[in-house]
Design brief:
Layout (H helix, E strand, L loop, with lengths): L6 H15 L22 H10 L1 H4 L14 H15 L15 H6 L6 H6 L7 H23 L1
């Protein structure tokens, strides 16, 4: 009959698993792809608000915090950044951005930036005035894009 593990044994096993997880390379490449093209921003203020609230996941200008180098957190962050860039990437404006026209709405509805992200990143927190300014700026910036694509 096997006895249950003691707390100290559980800590040793958890530590060994954490160390072993560092071998898995996914999420460890903290280089950013080159910036190819950005939208024609309606104003520098819109770009600055987008940079603070959106660029870590929706551009090739991701700031990689120190904890993003430790698995399994690195896996989650790399997954989120890859997903964000695939949906909308302000640094690769030369390719279709299918979700771009919905970005202002997601800002207004407080879906973006995600609350869990803003909790840990003070630069991404938007007060009501900044939120509306960013959404309006995205409407203007991306509305111009929409008009260009209709031609």
């Amino acid at each position: 009959m096997r006895l249950p593990l003691k707390f100290s044994q559980l800590l040793i096993v958890a530590g060994a698993l954490l160390v072993a997880a560092q071998i898995v390379p996914y999420g460890r490449d903290h280089s950013n792809p080159p910036i190819v093209a950005e939208p024609q921003w309606d104003s520098p203020a819109t770009r600055e608000l987008a940079k603070n609230a959106c660029f870590d996941c929706h551009s090739n200008e991701t700031r990689w915090p120190i904890y993003s180098r430790v698995a399994p957190i690195s896996w989650l962050i790399a997954y989120d950044v890859n997903e964000g860039r695939s949906v909308l990437n302000f640094s690769e404006w030369n390719r279709p951005q299918e979700e771009a026209m919905e970005s202002a709405e997601t800002i207004r509805e407080r879906e973006m930036p995600p609350p869990f992200y803003a909790l840990m990143h003070s630069h991404a927190r938007l007060n009501d005035a900044d939120r509306e300014q960013l959404a309006r700026g995205l409407d203007l910036t991306l509305g111009a894009l929409n008009k260009m694509s209709e031609r």
